[in-house]
Specification:
Blueprint: E1 17-20, E2 26-28, H1 50-53, H2 67-73, E3 74-75, E4 78-79, E5 82-84, H3 91-95, E6 104-106, E7 109-110, H4 116-124
Antiparallel strand pairs: 1-2, 1-3, 4-7, 5-6
Length: 135
C-alpha cells in the first residue's frame, strides 16, 4: 500500500501537525523544506510536509498537486501519536490497521470523516476507508 521507503516525520510536535483522514499519517502542514538530514536512529527521510510531498500512503489524493486538498484530506484534530519503524513487525501497527503503510508517525484516532467525494475516490481506487467511530 505504501510507496516504499518511509514517510517523512514531522519536525515539531506542536499545533501545526495534521493527520491524514484516511491512513492517519501525521506530518506538518507548512514548514520550510530543509535540505539536510538530521542524524536519527531509524530509516526516515528528511523532514517534510503534506503540502510539498502529499501522503505517502494515499498518493491518489494528490495533495502535493492541490494544496487545497491538504485541508480536505487532513485534520489537526487527532488523538495520540505513535512512531512506527517497521509496520510489518509491529503489533501496535497491526492493531491500528497501519501494518501495510510506510514507516512514520501515525495517530491513534482522527475525529473527522473524509468528505463524501474523497470517500468515493477511495472506493474508486479500491482503497479501504474506515470512518472514525462516533464518540
Amino acid at each position: 500500500m505504501g510507496g516504499g521507503g518511509a514517510a517523512q516525520i514531522p519536525t515539531s510536535f506542536g499545533h501545526e501537525l495534521r493527520a491524514c483522514l484516511r491512513c492517519k499519517l501525521v506530518k506538518t502542514y507548512d514548514q520550510a523544506r530543509p535540505t539536510f538530514c538530521l542524524p536519527i536512529p531509524f530509516p526516515f527521510l528528511p523532514f517534510c510536509i503534506f503540502r510539498e510531498l502529499g501522503c505517502e500512503n494515499c498518493p491518489f489524493f494528490k495533495m502535493d498537486e492541490d494544496h487545497e486538498r491538504v485541508v480536505d484530506c487532513t485534520t489537526p484534530n487527532f488523538t495520540g501519536i505513535i512512531s512506527v519503524i517497521d509496520p510489518t513487525r509491529s503489533w501496535a501497527a497491526r492493531w491500528l490497521r497501519i501494518g501495510r503503510y510506510v514507516p512514520g508517525c501515525y495517530t491513534f484516532a482522527v475525529s473527522e470523516a473524509l468528505p463524501e467525494d474523497l470517500q468515493n475516490l477511495c472506493e474508486d481506487e479500491r482503497m479501504q476507508y474506515v470512518p472514525p467511530k462516533p464518540v
